[in-house]
Design goal:
- This protein is an alpha/beta fold and about 210 residues long.
- Helices cover about 25% and strands about 25% of the residues.
- It has five helices and ten strands.
- The strands form two sheets. Strands 3-2-1-4-5 form a five-stranded mixed β-sheet, covered by helices on one side.
- β7 and β8 form a beta hairpin.
- The chain starts with a strand and ends in a 9-residue tail after the last helix.
């Protein structure tokens, strides 16, 4: 039976859940530099074969001989574009480090109990509001990380979707990167530890 392995693409690196514990182990490619407004994994394309082999060996070291039979449950930043999502899928499937991949945004992972809620997060380039309903992103709005108004974002959250205008919908603040000080009083704060616990076991059927 295939094992589902949670994996997080953060602002700086990739975290893969350890085989025998709830710890997440970082995967860092050498010679990858931080470039403003460009996710680090874009640079994998410049050294595609080398990057895929490095990741394959990383997974093999953690999961042993049958590593390629697993499914990677990839948690992506909330502002990942459709083209970036395709690249991520193709990169990891073609690395031969797994038999299949599935994706969900970080916002979709913030609650397993609520049918609907608002998520708020920061990536390396944007602040992202999302309305989640039955594990699907029904509405999304982006704000430039270097030019935003906190009050406007909070006000926009109340009108993000018609559902949230007339119902009391919980708000979750994704503080995984410990950078949400402007919004801590706006909703329930999800700490890095809480986030890791929420994705330690993932139902792959709820992923896309």
């Amino acid at each position: 039976m295939a094992r589902t392995i949670p994996m997080i693409i953060t602002n700086k690196n990739i975290l893969l859940k350890d085989k025998d514990s709830d710890k997440f182990i970082p995967f860092d490619m050498p010679n990858v530099e931080s470039i403003m407004n460009i996710p680090f994994y874009h640079q994998f394309a410049e050294h595609l074969a080398e990057s895929q082999l490095a990741f394959k060996n990383f997974v093999k070291d953690l999961y042993g001989k049958k590593f390629h039979k697993n499914i990677l449950a990839i948690i992506i930043p909330d502002d990942t574009s459709a083209l970036e999502s395709i690249f991520i899928n193709e990169f990891f499937v073609n690395s031969d480090a797994c038999k299949a991949v599935a994706q969900m945004t970080m916002g979709q992972a913030l609650s397993k109990d609520d049918e609907r809620y608002i998520s708020l997060s920061k990536s390396s380039r944007n602040i992202t509001l999302q309305y989640i309903f039955n594990n699907e992103v029904r509405a999304r709005r982006f704000y430039d990380l270097n030019d935003y108004n906190t009050k406007k974002i909070i006000d926009d959250a109340k009108r993000l979707h018609i559902d949230v205008e007339y119902e009391d919908v919980p708000v979750y603040i994704n503080n995984f990167n410990m950078d949400m000080d402007d919004f801590l009083e706006f909703g329930e704060v999800i700490t890095p530890k809480m986030f890791m616990e929420k994705i330690a076991v993932i139902d792959v059927e709820k992923l896309k």
